[in-house]
Every structure is written in C-alpha cells, then in structure tokens.
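Following up on my earlier thread - several people asked me to post the actual chain instead of describing it. Fair enough. Here it is, all 358 residues.
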Amino acid sequence: TAIIPEDGSPIDLHMVEVMHMRHRLNTDTKCINGIVLDHGGRNDGMPKYLENVYLLTCNVSLEYEKSELTAGFYYKDPSKKAEMAAAERKSTDERCRHIIELKNQVCTKENGCTFVVINQKGIDPIALEMLSREGILALRRAKRRNMERLVLACGGEAINSTENMSVDILGRASRVTEEQIGDDKYTYVESTQKVAKSVTLLIKGPDEHTINQIKDAIRDGLRAVKNAYEDNCVIAGAGALEVACNSHLMQFADTVVGKQKIGVRAFAEGLLVIPKTLAENSGLDVQEALITLQEANTEARKSGKWAGMNLFDGKTIDPVAAGIFDNFAVKKSLLESCGIIAAQLLLVDEIMKAGRRG
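Reply from S.P.:
Thanks for posting it. Predicted structure:
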C-alpha cells in the first residue's frame, strides 16, 4: 500500500528504491520506511545520528562557481583582492545564512528538533563548515530520483531558491542515521508516516551472486503484485488453468467439423507444456503426474474448484487454498500471443515451400 496512488493513477514501481550492500547475510535484507542514500555528510563535524528531524530538500548551488568567461583582474593593493574574494563568496554565504535562519526558527532547545539538508547540487567546504557549526547534517549531489522519493516519503517540497523559505516547505523524518561500511557511507532517512509513499528495499548478502538472486526475486515479486492490483483479480496457479483449458478444448473439439478439429486439439495439447515443465523441473514422472492432475481436474471442476500440481510429491492440491496464483495479465498475454506466433510460423513454412516449388 506504500506506493499505491490515492488518485487511482498507475502504480510507479520506481518509487521503490532497491539498494544493495555486500554486507552480512541475505536474511538481513529489509524494507526501510523511507529512503536510503548511498552517501553521507562530507564534514567530520556533522552529526551522525539525528531524531525528530526537519528535512530540507533543495536544488540550490552552495558552492563557489567560477565565471564562464575568461577574465583577468589587476589589483592596486592586497585589500582589493580580499574584497573581491569576499564579494565572490557573498551569494553562496547568503544562501547558507538563509538555511541557518530557517533552522534556528524551527529547531529550539525546547522542542529538541534537528535539521538536515539534502541538496541535488554541490556544497563547498566553506559552506559545509558553516552548516556543521550549527549542527546541520548536509548531503550534497543527491540523485534526482531520490529527491522525488524524499518528498513522497517525508513530505515538504523541493525548492530551487533559498529566498522566502517557510516551515511549510520542510519535510519531517523520525530519524536520520549515517552508517559507514568499509569506504562507503549510507544515510538512512526514516519517515514519520506510518506507511510512506516511497520506500527502500535494502538488500544485503555475502556475495554478488546472492544479491543478484534476491534482486531478481524482488523485481519479479513487485511486478506480480502490481499486475494483480491493477487487474483486480488473480488466476489459480500450479498448472490448474492450463489443465482446465485443455479439458475444455478437448470437449469443444468434438463439436468442430473438418480439419479445424486438428488445430483445436493441437492447441489443447500445447497448453500442457506448462504442467509438463513443472513436473520435469521438479524431478517427477511427467506422464504419471500429468495423468493424475487431469483426473483430479475432472473431479474438481464438477464442484467449481481447481486442481493443481504439488511439486513436492507429484500429487494434486487446491491452488486457491494453498495460495498459489498466476497473474491474469500474464495468462491473457500468453493465450493471445501463442496463436498469433503459431500462425506466423506456419506462414513462414508456406512461403518457403512456395519458394522451392517456384
């Protein structure tokens, strides 16, 4: 429910950040109710653990930028050079002061609140030092997609200017922590919402193979849940649908006249490839498992139930009771495309035959 839009628009799975760490065991994989960033603060004096946090997300340059034009400056005395350097820093320092003023406005000793700045652009060492003195944790060069997710997870809004800032633009986080693993730093931003609108799946594992296996499983699982939600229905799995369709088509073939009967029966036999593959991959006797499943299906359909294959012992189970389902969209696409693909292959054969005869 974290990423389901309230306005009924399609689900965006990009709002689920999938991040991996080569650390600990795969059983340590967990879902963070918020965002995990793959970098930390760039100043050693900044806090590493904050609670009851006000969060400012911005896309503002907090670093000195050289002019795009090549120009030379000549000074009469060293004081003029110092004035020039101060003028160059003035705009950057002014933006930092605006942030510090906002922090002092919302964070007091009485409420015990803290302040975090996450910026999409850069923050130079001087600006980092200014923010560090005020107890502000500042992260620079955050990814654009993470800026969008932060707003969804913690609220507030991303700003492009530090002028006329108010409390309304700030998000809230229950806790912000920085963790270092080897040379890599990670920052956890945990939302105050019970169920955030953007979350992070933090994958952990001892090696790349384990991490890739978990990633593939999560990717498939997220899309399966998304399809089920959008279809508003599911279909009995464990080969139950294919066997039921095979039985129905065989009965229908008896009512068909002419060569079309052969096509209907061939299509029905083709549907059995899925339960046959399930049995073969499970090390079962394919023919015995298939016959057992077909007999069980005949009895189950009389009472409006389904019969699926138990991959552990080759017997049959009720897939609905066992919680084994397939996506409606996947099965629909499969049934629609297989007939078209078969027709195209037969057309190619006809063209090749015509070429030989010609």
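The radius of gyration is 31 Å. That should answer part of your original question.
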